[in-house]
Design goal:
mainly alpha, single chain, about 130 residues
Length: about 130
């Protein structure tokens, strides 16, 4: 794979992982909204890892590998939070992150299939191009 192609595929993954790392480094992300705070933070966890899962699948083109790499990053993210004052690593958060990764991988696969299907249906058939 040429360097420019690798950079185009992997730079978004690295940048997004850095965004996740930065958010995980913040000691307190509470909004003061009570129960809604908890729900919104868990949804944010799933969403940020869904993006990571989609980017990993885009880069690897292998769903299983993308899922495995996203899962490993989810575990490392929670481990990182153990060392951040005011934060704690949580097995529940790992599970939420993994669900997010899976959703991102599945959504990227669906989008790719839809795009491929649209391309093939709009391409001229060989009968039409011969005429």
């Amino acid at each position: 794979m040429p360097t420019s192609a690798a950079l185009r595929l992997w730079a978004p993954v690295v940048l997004w992982a850095a965004v996740i790392f930065a958010f995980s480094s913040v000691p307190d992300l509470g909004t003061g909204l009570g129960t809604w705070d908890l729900v919104l933070r868990k949804l944010a966890h799933a969403a940020e890892f869904a993006v990571l899962g989609a980017l990993l699948l885009r880069a690897t083109d292998r769903a299983g590998l993308a899922f495995a790499l996203g899962t490993l990053y989810a575990v490392s993210d929670e481990l990182h939070q153990v060392f951040v004052p005011g934060r704690m690593g949580s097995p529940l958060d790992i599970a939420i992150d993994i669900v997010g990764v899976a959703c991102g991988v599945l959504l990227w696969q669906r989008a790719a299939r839809s795009t491929a299907s649209a391309r093939s249906s709009s391409a001229p058939s060989s009968a039409n191009s011969a005429a």
